[in-house]
């Protein structure tokens, strides 16, 4: 049996994406070329890996089993390459870090600076992601590790192949303009006092939007959402103009710190966790281990341990 790594990549992506066309788009091949790779892999292992159902193909039981092992084999290959580069204790491989708005602004610069200082041969690059798709991007190999957000009342889905490391916990307050709703100075209110306020929130289908709405419902009201905005900097700008209240954390405020807002703390503990997402077992890769340590130190210099969840 002689399995090609390229053929295993095609099978792994077929298991993840479901169609030959989607695999072809991801890998830069034609659908016909992907089909030929799967056929060659079937010949190599002597077992049928896909079957046709209507116009689509689905994995057979053998295909499902091999796809699961393909993930492990390809991960081991990457670990081996990293280990070879680190023979002389020199972390010197490419690593792609997934970021989103507030982490890109607040955390990426110190992470890049620390990486350049400590591991000058680490080829660190970044890619902005939809934060709700961060775990999927890691699973699909689109990035090596990624920042993510986890909300206690609307948690990120857990899967066996993903590991999340808590970096920091933050509490939400509300950003309003001076004078709005009688607020002129910073202070603390009960969330229920904002039941009749206008709100600026992300859409309900986002994890952030869902988490805030759940918190409000737990206090007996539905927020009056006047403006559905995904971009935190824009939400802060609207709040600063008196158009409503926007949920904020300290790190979110850094995205638009010049906006004249007042942050009102809440008696209720409504929070989020900033996490680092990586493939389970990927700590064997020197680059992943190095960036994990760098990120932890950048987020919390006093941290000596991170919580795996």
TrEMBL record:
Superkingdom as given in the UniProt entry: Bacteria
Keyword Oxidoreductase part of the UniProt annotation: no
Domain (HTH lysR-type): residue spans on this chain: 3-60
Tagged with keyword Transcription: yes
GO terms for cellular component: protein-DNA complex
Keyword field: Activator, DNA-binding, Transcription, Transcription regulation
Single GO term (MF): DNA-binding transcription factor activity
UniProt-listed InterPro entries: LysR_HTH_N, LysR_subst-bd, WH-like_DNA-bd_sf, WH_DNA-bd_sf
UniProt family annotation: Belongs to the LysR transcriptional regulatory family.
Name used for this protein in its record: LysR family transcriptional regulator
């Amino acid at each position: 049996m002689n399995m090609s790594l390229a053929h295993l990549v095609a099978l792994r992506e077929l298991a993840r994406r479901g169609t030959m066309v989607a695999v072809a788009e991801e890998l830069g091949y034609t659908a016909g070329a992907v089909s030929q790779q799967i056929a060659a892999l079937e010949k190599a292992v002597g077992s049928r890996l896909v079957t046709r159902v209507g116009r689509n193909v689905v994995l057979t039981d053998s295909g499902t089993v091999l796809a699961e092992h393909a993930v492990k084999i390809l991960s081991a290959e990457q670990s081996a390459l990293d280990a070879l580069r680190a023979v002389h204790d020199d972390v010197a491989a490419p690593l792609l870090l997934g970021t989103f708005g507030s982490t890109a602004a607040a955390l990426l610069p110190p992470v890049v600076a620390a990486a350049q200082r400590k591991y000058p041969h680490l080829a660190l690059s970044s890619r902005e992601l939809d934060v709700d798709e961060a775990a999927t991007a890691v699973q699909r190999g689109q990035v090596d590790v990624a920042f993510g957000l986890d909300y206690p009342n609307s948690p990120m889905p857990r899967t066996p192949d993903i590991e999340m490391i808590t970096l920091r916990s933050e509490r939400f307050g509300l950003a309003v303009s001076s004078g709005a709703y009688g607020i002129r100075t910073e202070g603390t209110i009960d969330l229920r006092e904002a039941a009749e306020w206008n709100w600026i929130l992300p859409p309900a289908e986002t994890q952030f939007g869902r988490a805030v709405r759940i918190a409000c419902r737990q206090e007996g009201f539905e927020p009056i959402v006047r403006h559905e905005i995904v971009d935190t900097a824009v939400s802060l700008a609207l709040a600063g103009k008196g158009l409503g209240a926007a949920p904020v954390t300290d790190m979110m405020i850094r995205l638009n710190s010049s906006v004249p807002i007042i942050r009102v703390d809440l008696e209720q503990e409504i929070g989020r966790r900033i996490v680092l997402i990586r493939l389970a077992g990927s700590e064997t890769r020197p680059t992943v281990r190095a960036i994990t340590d760098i990120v932890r130190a950048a987020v919390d210099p006093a941290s000596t341990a991170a919580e795996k969840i």
